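Changelog note: in this version the structure field was regenerated for every chain. One regenerated record is shown below for reference.
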Amino acid sequence: MLVERVIYLYVEKGNRECEEAAKLLNEANFRYTEVEACPGGLLLAYGASDVPLAVVPGPAIWGEDLILVGIEQIRKFVEGEYPSIFYSGLKRSDAREKRKRVDGYVQKTIQ
């Protein structure tokens, strides 16, 4: 049984890159929770204070979270450029689409 996981997106209101990160996650149908960033808290918790910052909870078998700092890392994640284990069990707002890594390429399948 897969445990569904949700991405945490730390943002600052009015920040253009934060708005773009939210748009990317929405368009890719990832479910996420938007959290108002507290730079000092982010630095202590994740070692970075830049926003947008996305935390992808690690799968239970791995246990480590994937920390994405900045719009470029979030864009790469949405495009499927990280190990497939991080995509397993992520909640989607539209469960019809699945992503699989096949020989280094992302394959989208519609169910």
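Spot check on this record: Confidence is low (pLDDT under 50) at residues 94-111. Strands lie at 7-11, 32-36, 53-56, 66-69, 97-102, 105-110.
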